[in-house]
Amino acid sequence: MQQSGTSAQQNGLPMAFMTYLIWGLLPLYLRLVHHVPPFEFVGWRVVFTVPVCLVLVLALGQWRALKAALAWPVLRLLMLSAILVGINWMIYILAVQTGHVLATSIGYYMNPLANVLAGTLFLSERLSRRQWLAVGLAALGVSFLAWGALDTLWISLTLALSFCAYGLVRKLAPVESLAGLSVETLVLLPIALGIVAWYAAAPTGSSMGVDSTSSLLIAFSGVITAVPLLLFAYAARRMDYSTLGMVQFFSPTIAFFLGLFVFKEPLNTSQLACFMLIWSAIAVFMWDLWLQRRKRLSQEAPA
After folding, report:
1. Residue 154, SS3?
2. How far apart are CA 69 and CA 186, in angstroms?
3. pTM above threshold 0.85
4. Are 52 and 222 in contact (CB under 8 A)?
5. What is the pLDDT of residues 204-216, one digit of tens each?
């Protein structure tokens, strides 16, 4: 793969791994708030993410970057990314809370393949032969998985395509991660306020304020939303999109093990074989990145 910048790749990779670690463990948090209706929870998620972002903007002195992100050429891209991430949140939370963690895992196994395709089609990124082999192995595994879960395939496809499109827009938008996320949440805020107000007026009432533990968990959604999205946007701006996509296999692998061992979802032999193909693809891709890094270091070494 042609590197767009060695130091940028190295700076972005740790952020990408941290992002996908948090997202991989997210089902554990979502199970703690499973009593909150999915639509209402997405509303609260936006409401509490806004102050987290604005506090960070204030603390880091990024008002100028925020103002630049509100300029129309950038704002229209962020409006699109806000819609895409809102759809992604809604489907993901609905799936987890209704016991379809493995369906979300399949969706986020599909997403890296979508990222690779987007990187080659829209960003002129190129893959090595070993990396194409990895993509082929992963595609074969994901295809078998999807075929064995046709009833929840819509969940997987929606998650994969919406987040691929979100990441692509964020990579193309000329804005840093914090300013971009701040604008996205501000765009979604009126809708979010309408959602939480509608639930508050319903006979069952709002989930917020029922008890202190539940309220704190709901309020924590602002942190659990803002931190990984900031890290993701940082990594997306500094890495080839194809590489970022393949690193993303880390997240659904964690979700897969959570679904299997923590949430006790069933797993048959064919599914296990498919996951083995996907893990082999990850190994091949990472092996190729390691070989490229060794070659690059040997070329940079003084004679």
Report:
1. helix
2. 12
3. no
4. yes
5. 999 998 899 999 9
In one-letter notation, the amino acid at residue 127 is L
For residues 210 and 5, is the Cβ–Cβ distance under 8 A?
no
Q: Return the sign of the alpha-carbon dihedral for residues 273, 274, 278, 279.
A: negative
Sign of CA dihedral 106, 255, 183, 63: negative
Judged by DSSP in three states, 264 sits in coil
Planar angle of CA 170, 85, 28, nearest 5 degrees: 120
Distance from C-alpha of 241 to C-alpha of 16, rounded to nearest angstrom? 11
Q: Measured between alpha carbons, how far is 84 from 226 in angstroms, rounded to an integer?
A: 16
What local confidence, expressed as pLDDT, does residue 239 receive? Answer: 84
Each residue of 67-103: pLDDT tens digit? 999 999 999 999 999 999 999 999 988 888 888 877 8
Q: Which amino acid is at 55?
A: V
Provide the Cα torsion 95, 245, 173, 128; round to 10°: -160
Per DSSP, the three-state class of 59 is helix
Cα(115)–Cα(288) distance, integer angstroms: 18
Pair of tokens at residue 59: 């603390």
